[in-house]
Write a structure and sequence with these properties.
With 106 residues, the protein is of the alpha+beta class. The protein contains three helices and four strands; from the N terminus they run αββααββ. The strands form two sheets. It has a two-stranded antiparallel sheet. The protein has a two-stranded antiparallel ribbon with strand order 3-4.
Length: 106
Amino acid sequence: MRYLSAIFCLLAAPLTAHPHVFVETGLKLVRGQSGMVEGVEVTWRYDELYSLLVLEDMGLDDDFDGKLTQVEMAELDGFDLKWIEGFEGDLYATSAEGKLALGPPK
């Protein structure tokens, strides 16, 4: 019986895990006076665990009251818009003529 337990331990796959980030997203086309699309409003709402990890990593909400100060909000604003060099971003638009040039995220 002891050998059987040892065999099962050796055959068991090692446990590995990696964090998952769950994001609720939304897109809204912004139209100008002429009715032409002038912009795209992108909404990202991160899950509670990832939000907590971001606040921890950035050292925000030190009093743990769930409310960020204006300074903390300014530091957090746009943290996820800093892409690595050469990466175009996460939103692409095309027309019948081809790829549309988009401005940087705001």
